[in-house]
Amino acid sequence: MFKPGLSPSPTRLLALAGLTATMLLAGAACAGDTTPAQQLGRFSAQAGAPGNADQGKAFFNTRHGGEWSCSSCHGNPPVKTGQHASTGKEIAPLAPAFNANAFTDSARVDKWFRRNCKDVLRRECSAAEKADVLAWLISLKP
């Protein structure tokens, strides 16, 4: 602690500022506003029924009239780094047990479900479809 009447040295202030910034950035890098279980609860509530892992697995691995399925890019099962079918861009593992950041940011979850469902289904996924897929992804363990 600082003694009354004495001001801290500039070196101490810089060290304290650096430590504070590092702690904030580390927290922000890992922080999310949700969890996969909370996302599953949200989609299940919207659907009016709990997610069904078996239906989610079938949905994930099926082509829905187009040339792609979810597994075309994310892999089957989606526990390793995937690759976008047309751009070749790497995609982090989708199953939460294999990617601590998966389904931890509501805005990203909504954005990517919207984009990917439109690519695979040519429409947005229903809440029930999202709940089913997420129930299956949560069930995947190392």
Q: Any overview of this molecule?
A:
- By secondary structure, the protein is mainly alpha-helical.
- It has a single domain, classed as Cytochrome c-like domain (Cytochrome Bc1 Complex, Chain D, domain 2, Orthogonal Bundle).
- It is built from six helices and two strands.
- A two-stranded antiparallel ribbon has the order 1-2.
- A hairpin with a 6-residue loop joins β1 and β2.
- The longest helix is centred in the N-terminal third of the chain and has 21 residues, at 10-30.
- The protein is globular and about 35 Å long.
- The termini are far apart.
- 25% of the residues are buried.
- Mean pLDDT is 84; it is low at 10-30.
